Amino acid sequence: MAERITGADFDKKVKNADGLVLLDFYSDSCIPCKQLSPVLGELEEAYAGKAAVYKVNVNYEEALSAEYRVMSAPTLILFQNGEPVDRKSGMQKKGSVDRMAGPLYWRLKKRTSIIAVSLDAHNRSRKAA
Fold first, then answer.
1. pTM of this prediction?
2. Which member of 17, 30, 46, 108 is catalytic?
3. For this structure, is 17 an active site residue?
4. Among 6, 24, 36, 45, which is least packed by CB within 10 angstroms?
């Protein structure tokens, strides 16, 4: 289950995060929010260790909701390296959220792999010299 965060830990967990963070702005009394919860749980498992999934309660975190112009719950905002890059409002199916996060996740993973391969090749060439 996605961890609930507040304004107090928002900067640390979202704005200062490296990589992807999916943020769910929800309300406890919202039926679509409750229906979305298992979808987020599945995505959290699928992206474990590679992307973070957090929840923000719009009833308690009004300043965050206003800052990100959240007008309805649920609203999902995808952050990349602390910046919002995509958003969806209303009930979403897993495929819809996965299409939102997936391409960025794979692009970041590919870039990380390219850097690792480049460093490995560089280290081998230094050892040979």
1. 0.77
2. 30
3. no
4. 45
